[in-house]
Write a structure and sequence with these properties.
With about 350 residues, the protein is of the alpha/beta class. It has 13 helices and 13 strands. Helices cover about 35% and strands about 20% of the residues.
């Protein structure tokens, strides 16, 4: 049976880039410290009053334009984000309304940084079952509201004021993750390919909630009320990450998954043209490439310019690679990611 085909891609990032030096205004860090640990030089932040559906709209429009499609041609949206416009409803229906196709199914997927794997797998199943003919897969994040500093005017450099000692200490306490994340959106238009042997040819996906506390936002509906002064003052509404453990999980689980998915497809690692990995940390992907004996030239990166945009990293990178000609027809691509949950895995796609 024929599989999916990526017929259009697009991405969007908001405003101006924020350098590592900009971050040093609100927490104790510097450019060298961030680059050495993450490979990141800059990232983008969603402005006040905008959400992920707003970021996703131009990305989706660009993907549709590249595909030669109109909004009314879409009959399903799969929207992935961990930073939705609202606690509910999901952002997929908001995007559909803004895009001009308000009545189509548009569920949100919450698999964080591993979102693209699940989005591709579900889209592939919908296309193979003839439950959809044209699917828009979107990953978008607005991490700005999650950042641990309060003084955005200081970050912007529009004031000579310095953060209070309490705000400086709070932001610095969370710098291990605060320096990583950025905002943006990526979108892909998918159809069923007319020839067999294309699209998703093998999948290796896993979830394990035993390690959820190592990468999570503790706040939620376990408490009454779900948001209180104690929740905010105690930083339960901020991201909590055990960076060393997350690193260990990524550099052990992902190489095993990549080898497993290649075995399922009866191909070797050397036969894979591109390894498109989640852009969480340049050091993680370098370690994965080293363990697989894969040259970094086959594991492209854009984290230096965008930071970690969670659900959006793989769609953004795929859009860049399609537009600059690196992704060509009949190539074998391995998509790999690990995210909070933990959710992780890999997938082989024949273009």
């Amino acid at each position: 049976m024929s599989g999916l085909s990526i017929i259009g891609t697009g991405h969007y990032v908001p405003g101006r880039p924020y350098s590592n030096q900009d971050l040093s205004r609100v927490l104790d860090t510097n450019d060298e410290w961030i680059r050495q640990r993450t490979g990141i030089a800059q990232r983008y932040y969603c402005p006040e009053g905008q959400g992920v559906s707003d970021l996703a709209l131009p990305a989706a429009q660009r993907a549709l334009e590249a595909a030669g499609k109109r909004p009314e041609d879409i009959d399903y949206i799969l929207f992935s984000t961990m930073t939705p416009d609202h606690i509910f409803p999901g952002s997929g229906s908001l995007l559909a309304a803004k895009l001009g196709c308000p009545t189509i199914p548009a569920p949100d997927l919450r698999t964080q940084c591993a979102a693209s794997l699940y989005g591709f797998q579900i889209a592939d199943a919908l296309l193979r079952a003839d439950a959809a003919g044209c699917i828009l897969v979107v990953g978008a994040e607005a991490h700005a509201g999650l950042m641990p500093w309060r003084d955005w005017d200081i970050l912007e450099g529009t004031t000579e004021r310095r953060p209070s000692p309490e705000d400086w200490d709070r932001a610095t306490r969370h710098r291990g993750w605060a320096i990583i994340f950025g905002d943006g959106a990526g979108a892909l238009v998918l159809e069923r390919h007319q020839s067999p042997g294309k699209g998703v040819i093998a999948v290796d996906i896993h979830s394990d909630g035993r390690f959820a506390s190592q990468l999570c936002i503790p706040a939620g509906f376990r408490t009454r009320p779900y948001l209180s002064a104690a929740t905010l003052d105690g930083d339960a509404s901020l991201l909590h990450m055990d960076g060393r453990e997350v690193f260990k999980h990524a550099v052990t689980k992902l190489p095993k998954s990549i080898l497993a998915v290649c075995q399922k497809a009866e191909v070797t690692v050397d036969q894979v043209d591109w390894f498109i990995a989640h852009q969480a940390n340049a050091r993680i992907n370098e370690a994965i490439a080293s363990r697989l004996n894969v040259p970094m030239e086959r594991m492209p990166s854009n984290i230096e310019r965008f930071g970690n945009t969670s659900a959006a990293t793989i769609p953004i990178l795929m859009d860049e690679m399609r537009r600059d000609g690196r992704i060509k027809p009949n190539q074998l691509i391995c998509v790999a990611a690990l995210g909070a949950g933990f959710h992780w895995g890999s997938m082989l796609i024949r273009t």
